[in-house]
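notes to self, project folder thing:

trying the whole complex as one job this time. last attempt i did each chain seperately and stitching them together was a nightmare. two parts in total, labels are on each line so i dont mix them up again. if this works i'll redo the older ones the same way
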Amino acid sequence: MTAVPEENAVTTVAEEKLAQREAIEESGWGQPFRFVQLDNVAFWVYVLGVGGGALTMVRTYLPGVAFYTPALAGGVVLFGLYLIPWLLLLRHHNRFTAQPARLLATGFVWGGVAATFWIALPANTALLSIWAKLGGTTFADDWGAGLSAPINEEFGKALGLVLLIGLAPRLVRSAYDGFIIGAFIGLGFQVSEDVLYVYNGASQQYGVNQLGSSLQVFVVRGATGIVSHALFSAIFCAGLMWVLGRSGERNVVRGVLTMLMAMVFHFAWDDTTGLSGGTWLGAVLPFVIAAIELTALFYVLRHAARQERTWMRELLGPEVDNGVVDPALLDAVSGLRKDRKKYRKHVHSRAKARHRIEAASDLAREIALAGGAESAGVKHARSEVLRVRTG
Amino acid sequence: MATGTGQVPRDWVPVEHRLFGLDRRTFAAGFTALGIALVLIYGPQVLNAAIPWHNEIRAGEVLDLGDGGTAVPPVGWQLEKGTLTGEGAASATNLDVVLASGGATIEMDGAAFEGSANAFLDQVIQSEGDEPGMTSARGSVTTDAGLVGVVESSTGPSGDTVDVAFKMAVGTAEATDAAPALLVRVRTAAGQFERYQDEVAAMIRSISPGVAR
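result (full assembly):
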């Protein structure tokens, strides 16, 4: 090993520290999220949207809430349980410069109340009527949903991301931020729409066998929901962030194509019956579409994570220099699934690898919270990394 | 000269960025979102109101009620929802047909219901709760194909309503109880039902459960 002259070593450390500060500044990691901002127009538009949506929600459910209690309760409980694995999955993906839970909850509520009841419900009703007028009722039955929802629902959900940019401009920076926030907005929309479907299904049958009807909707919507709004919005919002280029990774062509891809997926999801023409394809097509959508989702995720991974490397750079984090661990904590898998092989232990990656991730978060300075949190997190590395 | 402390409160808005107490730097995101939301909400509604219906029922056209069931809709009415025979596949237990003419509408809803037509109409009324207005005594109506329906009319502040409930089968009580249910609901402005009575009666008489039943 060649000895580094002391002066050069000092310069390298200073550069690493500067890169760390820049990564903290650019990513906005560690910034608190404040929802109530009375001088912020985005806050008032958010309140208007959620308020308008809540009003429509009350008008929709209130007249039948007493009679349809079994269906509604069944729908809320079943889809509430359905949310749990989704939240765990999205929490797992909320890595790198993770978004605060309150910001994600704000997005979730926009998707579940404003995008659904303030925007999508009146827009879809009008658009379905337009398609029936222009193409006839059979055309509207076959294609109306797919020609309406991808437009108003995708843009309606993405408005939640735009408002969150207005509410937390320093926190919502990268395509990966768009991906994660979009997934939460989409999940809120999905669950809210599912409960509405349970209610509509029960009222279509005039309240006969309400629990059976809600269970039926749960099975169908739950299964098809694996590749639905959360996925569409994650892709669409990542695309929107590429168009906006808020972290210097602007790519309008890629962004627009990604947004269009999400809309095409949404169209295919809504109009499977029309696409299959009522043939045997109807049984196969959903699986083919799901496979394509999941492949595209991971492709977008990989590309969207690039900027965040760079920030993570820059954030922990000085910790590599001082020997707290070794290069292999840095690769794993700033890497994708394959990098973490490689690290597991490297340390010959799944548990050790997981503990070290989490400890390094905690250290990165504490450094960001302290703005790159030394703090009690940073010191403790650093000692934890050293403990699990030597343990 | 006074100097600052160097610590700017996080939510501090410099005076040159304020307008009517709002931070002008938040205008772009806020007003863009508001503008797009209003276009998404009201754009389709304005367009829908501007486009007239051109889906008139022509002589000889027949409504598909699912499972082979059919009805002959009144000529000249607009088909706003539903499927004509030969155009697609309707579901008897998930049927949604809407015909409109002037201020009158005929809605036909299919549902899965175990029991008689009378019990089905009870279920419909129970599910919708009490509405203000006067309700007539129930009567029965028989279609040309032999389907026996239960009819109930009511009048209230929102207009006149006639509900006719059918079980889409003829034959034994077991067969009719197990068959899909059909609700035909006619709504007109108050006192206007007589204007449409002949057309509605002709359509109801034409309802057939299909050859399969």
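what i see at first glance: Residues 309 and 349 of chain A are 24 Å apart (CA to CA).
need to look closer tmrw
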